[in-house]
UniProtKB/TrEMBL annotation:
This is Cytochrome c. InterPro entries: Cyt_c-like_dom (IPR009056), Cyt_c-like_dom_sf (IPR036909), Cytochrome_c-type_DH (IPR051459). Pfam families: Cytochrome_CBB3. The keyword Transcription does not apply. It comes from Pedobacter flavus. Keywords: Heme, Iron, Metal-binding. Residues 18-107 form the Cytochrome c domain.
Length: 127
C-alpha cells in the first residue's frame, strides 16, 4: 500500500508527508496538552493554532516561539493572549521543522513545506 501511495507523489510531497507525520508525534508529546488535539487552544490562557492569517504572517517567528517560548502579546482571531508560553530548548531543528509543518498544515492551515534548514535561519533572525 505504501508503495502505491508513494509512487503517486513527488519526492517533495513525500518529504512533506514524513515531516507532517513526525511533526504530529512531536506535537502530541509537547504541544497538544496546551494547544489541544484540534489546535483549539485552552480558553483564555492558550491561543488556538487555527488562525491561518496569523500563522502565515508569523511563520518566520514560529521556530523561535517553539524553541525559546514567548511572553509577547499575541492576537489570534482578534483576541489577545498574554500568557507566557514556555520554550522547548531541547528540541532539535528537525523536531521544530516537523512540528511547524504539522501545525501549518493542520487545523485549517495549508502552508506547505518548512525544511529543517530554515529553522536556524529563522532563529538567527529572531535574536
Amino acid at each position: 500500500m505504501l508503495i502505491i501511495i508513494s509512487s503517486c507523489q513527488s519526492a517533495e510531497e513525500l518529504e512533506q508527508a514524513k515531516y507532517y507525520i513526525n511533526g504530529m508525534s512531536v506535537y502530541e508529546k509537547a504541544c497538544q496538552n496546551c494547544h489541544g488535539k484540534k489546535g483549539e487552544g485552552l480558553g483564555e490562557l492558550v491561543p488556538p493554532l487555527t488562525d491561518t492569517l496569523f500563522m502565515q504572517a508569523n511563520r518566520n517567528k514560529l521556530a523561535s516561539i517553539i524553541k525559546n517560548g514567548t511572553n509577547e502579546e499575541l492576537i489570534i482571531h482578534g483576541k489577545k493572549y498574554q500568557e507566557e508560553m514556555k520554550g522547548f530548548p531541547e528540541m532539535t531543528d528537525m523536531d521544530i521543522a516537523q512540528v511547524i509543518v504539522y501545525i501549518t498544515n493542520s487545523f485549517g492551515n495549508k502552508q506547505g513545506m518548512y525544511p529543517y534548514s530554515q529553522v536556524s535561519i529563522d532563529l538567527s533572525q529572531s535574536n
